[in-house]
C-alpha cells in the first residue's frame, strides 16, 4: 500500500469542474462538429445525446465509483478486486491510454497556441491562406517550440497538486470557457445561415445510417473522457459525502452543452460562408485550422473573433491535457511509489519524447509511418479506436462479473445519496455497454484496414 496521504478535491464543485474540464476538450470543439456534419446533423446530435444519457452515464458512474471505492488510480483500482491476469491487464490498459494520448494532444495544443499568437499579431489573412497550416505543421521545429510551451504549462499545473493545481485552474478556466463559448457562439450565429442551424438541430431521419450510431459512440468516448482512466483517478480524489450521480449529471450537462454550442458556432457559420457545401462541412480536424480561419477572414471583426475562438480552444485543450497528465502521474505515484515531483518529471520526459515524434511526423519524419499513418494519427488510432473500447469492455466486465453491481450501488448511495437511474445502469453495464464497445472496436479496426469505410 502507498504510504502517502491521498489528495482530495475540496468538494462537489471541485470534482465537477475538474471532471468537466477533462471532458470538455478538443473533442468537443473540432471533432464533434465535423462528425455531426458528416453523419446527419440533427440525427447525429439526437443519437449522441441518447448515448450520453445511457452509455456515457453508465461508464462515468462505474469509473468514478471504482476510483472512490478503492482510493487508487486505474491499475490499483482494478487489482483491488483480484490478481488475475485479466484484471491486471484491464487496469493497465486504462492507465496507459492517457500516457499515449497526452503527448500528441499537447502537439495539437501547440498548434492552437501558434494560431492564437498569429491572431493577436493581426495575421488573420495569412492564417486563411490555402497552404498556411500544411506549411506550419511540416516545419517540425516550429511546431516543436509551440508543443514544448503547451507541455510545460500543463506540467506546471500538475506539479502544484490536486487542489492547488488542477482544481484551482479548473475553477478559473471553466467559467471563462463557458462565457467564451456563449459569446463566440452568439456572434457566429448572427452571421449564420438558418439552413445550417436547422441542419444541426433538427433531426432528419433520412440522414440516419448505422455509421451515425458508430460515430456517435466513438465520439462519446473521446468527448466524455470515459475509458481512459481519468474518471477512476478523479473518483479516487472525491470525498465520500459528494453525490456521484449528481456530479455525473452535472458533467453530462456541461460536456453536452459545450459540444452543442461548438456545433452551433462552427457548422452554421461554415454553412453560410460555403453556400452549404457539404464537402466543406466534412473537412475533419482541418476544420479548425483551415476552414474556420477562412470563415473568420471573410467576417467583420474576424481577427477579434479569431482571438476569442482560439482562446476558447486553448482553455479547452489545457483542461483536458491536465486531466490526462494527472491520470498518468497518479499511476506512477501509486504503482511505483514515487513522489509527485518525480512522477511529474518522468511524465514530462515521456510527453516530450512521444510528442516530438508526433511533431516531426509531418516534417522531418514524414517518411516514417506505422500502418500507413503518421505518428500522431497512429497514436490517435491505437488509443481511441483500439485501446479505449477494450478499456470500456474491461470496466464493464469488472463491475458486472467481479465487483458486482450491489457493491457499486452501495458506494453510490452512501449517506443516503441518490441512484435514480439504477435500472438503466444495471442493464447498460451488463449488456449494452460491452456490446457497443465491441462494435466500436471491430468497426474501427475494419475501417483502418479498409474493410469498411466510415
SSE order and pairing:
Blueprint: H1 12-23, H2 26-38, H3 42-70, H4 74-79, H5 85-120, H6 124-127, H7 132-138, H8 140-160, H9 162-190, H10 194-201, H11 210-224, H12 230-236, H13 244-274, H14 278-281, H15 286-297, H16 302-336, H17 340-360, H18 375-403, H19 405-412, H20 422-448
Helix pairs in contact: 1-9, 1-12, 1-13, 1-16, 2-11, 2-13, 3-10, 3-11, 3-12, 3-13, 3-20, 5-8, 5-16, 5-17, 5-18, 8-9, 8-16, 8-17, 9-13, 9-16, 10-13, 11-20, 12-16, 15-16, 16-17, 17-18, 18-20
Task: Please give a structural write-up.
With 454 residues, the chain is an all-alpha fold. The chain is built from 20 helices and no strands. The relative contact order is 0.20.
Give a quick rundown of the structure.
Helix content is 78%, strand content 0%.
